[in-house]
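Forum: Protein Structure Q&A
Topic: Joint prediction for protein chains with partners

I've read a bunch of threads here and the consensus seems to be that you should model interacting components together rather than docking separate models afterwards. I'd like to see that in practice. Below is the full input, 554 residues plus whatever partners are listed. Could one of the regulars post the assembled result?
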Amino acid sequence: MAAVLTVPGAAQRGRSRPAGTLGPGSTLALGASVLWFSLLVLIPLAAVVVSATTGGWTGFWDVVSSPQTASALRLTVLQAIGVTALNVVMGTSLAWVLVRDRFPGKGVLDLVIDVPFALPTIVAGLVLLALYGQQSPLGIDVANTRYAVFLALAFVTLPFVVRTVQPVLETLERDVEEAAASLGAGRWTTFRRVILPSLVPAIAAGAALSFARGISEYGSLVLLSGNLPNRTEVASVRVLTYIENGDQASAASVAVILLVVALVVIVLLDVLQRRLSGVHA
Amino acid sequence: MSTPDPRPVRWGLRLLTMGYVLLLVAWPTGLVFGRAFEHGVGTFLDSFRDPDIQHALALTLTITVWAVLINLVFGVTISMLLARHHFPGRRLLSVLIDVPLSVSPVVVGLALVLVYSGRDGWFGPTLESVGYQVIFSTPGMVMATVFVALPLVIREVVPVLQEIGDDQEQAARSLGANAVQTFRRITLPGIKWAVVYGVVLAIARSMGEFGAVKIVSGNLVGQSQTATLAVEQTYQNFQQDSSYAIAALLALTAMVCLVVVAVLRPSAAKESS
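Posted by a regular:
Agreed with the consensus. Here's the joint model:
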C-alpha cells in the first residue's frame, strides 16, 4: 500500500510529525484500554509466572525434568526446529514463485497458502487425518507417530515465511541484480550474494514466527498425534494433562517455558521489524 | 519482469512448490469436504438436527459476536492511541499487544483459570461471591477468544493510520470539528477497509479457537461445548459423519473469510490511491 503515495516523503512526514498529547478524553480511553488489557492479558500471564515459581527453583526443575515432561519438551523443540528449517526453504521458494513467476493458477496458489491460517486448528488435524490417517487414499498412515507431529506443525506454520518474505521480494530493486549479472555473476551467485542478504531479516522473522507457533501448537495435534506419553506428546498437551489432573503449579511450570519462548520471539520480531523498515524507508 | 529464470529452474520451482502445497494443504482440505458429503447432502444436513450440535454452533456464534465486538472497540481505540499519541510506555504497549499471537492457546487457558477460577483463582472467588461466574461459563470463553484474536484488528489499523498521517484530522479540528466528528467524518473513512479486514480475520480466528476455550469451558455437551470442541468430541465418539460435517461447515466459513479478504485487499488499495 506504500506505493499509492505519490508525494515523495509524504509517509515519512506523517510518521515523524509529533503526535498529539493526551487530552482528557484520550487519557480516559488509555486508562480503560490499559485496564482491560491488564485484566485480560497481563495479570493472567503474570499469574502463570507466579504459579510456576511458588515451589521455588527446585519445584520448577522437578516438574520440567521429570521424564515424561522432559521428553515432551525435547520432542516439541526438535520438531519445531525441523519444521522451521523446512519452512525457510519451502517458504522462500514459494515466495519466489509467487513474486517472480507467472502462470495460470498462481492466484489460487496464493490463496491456498492462507488456508492453514484460516482453518480452525482442530479442523486442520482432521484434514490431515483424511489424507494421512487410517483411511488414507495414498496408503500412508502416520497417525499416532512422530511424523504426524511434524506434519501437523508443517501444516499450521506454512504461511509464515511466505508471508514475511513475499512483500520484501516485491520491493527489491531489480537493477542491482542486473548490475550483478552484467558484471558476470551467474544466477546462483546473484541470488546468494545479492538477493539472499536482503531477504535474511524477513526470513528470520518468518522463521521466528514459525518456531513460536510450532512450540505452542495444540489443536491440530489432538486428533492426529494420539498424544502418546514419551512418544508423540508435546509440551502444550503436557500442560493440559497437568490441568486436567488438577496440578496447576506443574502446568504453570511447563507453560512458563512456552511463555518465555513467545516473549523472546515477540521482542526479536520487534527488532527485526525495525531493521526491515529501516532498509525500505 | 526483467530476465526470467531459465526454464528448468522455473519448472522445478513450480513443481516443487505446487506439489508441496497440494500434498500438505489442498488435497487434505478437499478430502474433508469429500468425506462430509460422501453420503449425500441429506446425511450432511442430518448431523445438524442433533440438538447438542445445534447448541454448540449457537454458542460459537454467540462467543464470536461478543469477542469480535469487544476486539473491534478495543482495537480501534488502542490503534488511535498508539498511532496518534505519545505517552509513557507506548512502545512497550505496542510490543505487548502482539504477545497473544505467539502464546500457546493452552497457556492462555491456564492463565485465565489461574486468575478467574471460582475455586482458587486470584479474582474468581470474589467475582463469584457477587454472582458472576467467569470460568466454566460463557464470559470466560469470550475472554479466552478475545485474548487470542486481540492483535488482529490493531495490526491492520495502526499501519494505515500511520500512513495517512493526521494532516486532515488537524485541519478538521482547526475548522471547529469536535473529536467525535473528526473521527467519524475524517479518520473512519480512511481506516474503513483496514477495520473490515481486521474484523474478518478476527471472526475466522474467534470461530476456530479450540485450546484456550477447551480449558476455560469445562466442555460440557449441550452446555459449554463450542463447535470446535464438538468436532473433537464427535470424532472420538466415532460419530465421524457429524465430525466431518461440523468440520466442513467451519472450514467453509473460514474459506469464505479468506476469499472476502482476498477480494477486499486489492479494492481497498485501489480506493486509497
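The longest helix of chain A spans residues 67-100.
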